[in-house]
Write a structure and sequence with these properties.
- The structure is a single chain.
- The chain is mostly beta strands.
- It is 0% helix and 52% strand.
- Strand 1 and strand 2 form a beta hairpin.
- It is elongated.
- It starts with a strand and ends in a 27-residue tail after the last strand.
């Protein structure tokens, strides 16, 4: 089996408000090998959202089209939390042809934030002459629960709204909309 080797070096610069604050030089070696097999496939949920305090659980399936051994692992923000980190079981999942794992995360108010968390699933085969990998990224948004016991009182041309304080003290605001009559809108999951 023949292969080509390439060495590259690059500089990564970090800028803030038009001012360069740091840089780092990295180098890597890239080996290009001819192979006639395909990387593993990963099947799991698409992006999702969850209310803080809810338990999130879903399955991940990885399979190799050529039937070689597959190793399934995961990494990302939910696994790095100091309070109630996520985990997959088994970790890693290793098997011939097809493997599955289950993602578990007991969310809490500590996980609420504007940006979604990124979870990356990685499947690696043991094909010859090189191991091939595939990645699947899932974004998980943790929202604070909606306000409870909303009261709306008409006041002239306006409305006074009152609700109980959020169970998540790090909830920084709510989006309020006004409409005459019912909209028929049903919020999705």
């Amino acid at each position: 089996c023949s292969s080509d080797l390439y060495n590259v070096a690059f500089v990564i610069e970090e800028w803030r408000h038009g001012i360069k604050i740091s840089s780092v030089r990295r180098d890597m070696q890239i080996e290009i090998v001819a192979c006639d097999h395909d990387p593993p496939e990963i099947i799991t949920i698409d992006d999702t959202c969850v209310l803080a305090g809810d338990f999130l659980q879903f399955d991940i399936l990885a399979f190799d089209p050529e039937g070689t051994t597959v190793e399934l692992t995961a990494f990302g923000g939910p696994f790095e939390q100091s309070v109630s980190p996520a985990f997959i079981q088994p970790d890693p999942a290793i098997g011939k042809d097809t493997v599955s794992a289950t993602f578990f995360w007991q969310t809490s108010c500590d996980h609420v934030r504007f940006e979604p968390y990124t979870v990356v699933f990685k499947a690696k085969d043991n094909g010859f002459p090189v191991n091939l990998v595939n990645f699947k990224t899932v974004f998980i948004l943790v929202n604070a629960p909606a306000p409870e016991n909303l009261q709306a009182d008409a006041l002239g041309n306006g409305i006074n709204l009152n609700w109980e304080k959020s169970a998540c003290e790090n909830a920084v605001g709510y989006k309020l909309y006004r409409r005459s009559g019912e909209s028929g809108w049903e919020p999705g999951y």
